[in-house]
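Hey,
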Amino acid sequence: MNRLFLMSLAFCFLVACATTDYVGETYTTTTHVDVFFDASEIQRPYKTMGTAKTEGTEYLTFEAIEQQLVTDAMSKGADAIVIDGMNTITVGSTSSTTDNSYEKPRYIITDDGRVENVGGDNHYKSISTTTDIRDKVINARLIKYK
């Protein structure tokens, strides 16, 4: 029972997690980050301190991924972020095959001496399904006010 609980918890964590890749400068942690979708909206002098890409599974909302980005931006010392884009990307696929059965042919010899197949077609029968695995991505610039 304990093992099942831990496995379920690990699965939920893997499905609902977002990660941020960041390249740039780091400052003292901040407690608030302003969110912009256009740099022209920023009314204060600033500098771009770096760029970030936050990626989460397709089961997360963009709002949840944005919240992870804001948390990570605060940990890097950003005062604001400018979201440059949001998209969904394919990161892999899964395939499964079901109902794999083989119909062995059955033959008879007819009255005139011919061999005739009376059942089965000597093929495997199956259904294959392929599903894309997608992630949602937010690209942003981290901003430091001057």
